[in-house]
Design a protein that fits this description.
Blueprint (H helix, E strand, L loop, with lengths): L7 H15 L9 E5 L2 H4 L13 E2 L11 E5 L5 H4 L3 H4 E6 L5 E7 L10 H14 L6 E5 L2 H6 L7 H11 L3 H4 L4 E4 L7 H11 L4 E4 L3 E6 L2 H23 L9 H5 L2 H4 L10
Parallel strand pairs: 7-8
Antiparallel strand pairs: 1-3, 1-6, 2-5, 3-4, 4-5, 6-9, 8-9
Helix pairs in contact: 5-9, 7-10
The structure holds 1,3-dihydroxyacetonephosphate and zinc ion.
Length: 273
Amino acid sequence: MSSIIDAGFVKAFAKLCDDAYNKGWHERNGGNLSYRIKDEELKPYLSQLSFDGEFKPIGVTVENLKNEFFLVTGSGKYFQNVKADIENNVAIIEIDESGSAYRIVWGLASGGVPTSELPTHLINHSIKKEKTNGLHRVIMHSHPANTIALTFVLPLDSKVFSRELWEMMTECPIVFPRGVGVLPWMVPGSADIALKTAERIKEHDVIIWAHHGVFCSGADFDETFGLMHTVEKAAEILVKVLSCGGKRQTMSADDISSLSGPYKVNINTDYLK
Ligand code: 13P
Ligand code: ZN
């Protein structure tokens, strides 16, 4: 039987970590990634998991995730190292019957714990699972420089950020039609950041944490990476535009809303008023 290290979902997880590191979004241990594993993906490898570890409290209760398995990055581990040494840098965790505790069933072979943002990842997976009828499976948190830079110069307002980022590239309103949610600075890994992010993720797939980074949710690895990439590229263009003295012309609100029909997306018109 092949090793779980060669499973498609494990390889795709490692590829995302590597691609995101190469983009410069993951200095040191910055950022974290989690994937809600499909039953059929894990089934061939159940004999390689170890079910004798103790369950530990998550800190939040995620009832609709009970008995689910997640692949998550380890706390303090570097995205840079995931591809070459996945077994020591990531873990598969199992959520218990109550949805309030987890245990490591594979990985972090030389010790460690899942990302310090685990409660934030799990509470947001819980909401996205419900809101998307199970479609969303990936949550990614990165530290991309241009988006972070904008949190020092734009007002920390979801409408302002969404509109500015949409205007930077025609594809942006199509890729994130609900806009981005913006949150003020908060302590990383705290219950506060988990709960405030959860409130906003009901409406958006992208949340910007002021002076810290971006948190986003998607159906699969490509879509989630692509979302992060699009947001950060728009932010990079805006940084360049501002550095060149600001906009001389742009897309109008009508231009942006005219994309909804042909591209079959529901662009958030509240952000176009
Ligand atoms: P972890 O190493 O615990 O995942 O923390 C990194 C981070 O970016 C926290 O926001
Ligand atoms: Zn972070």
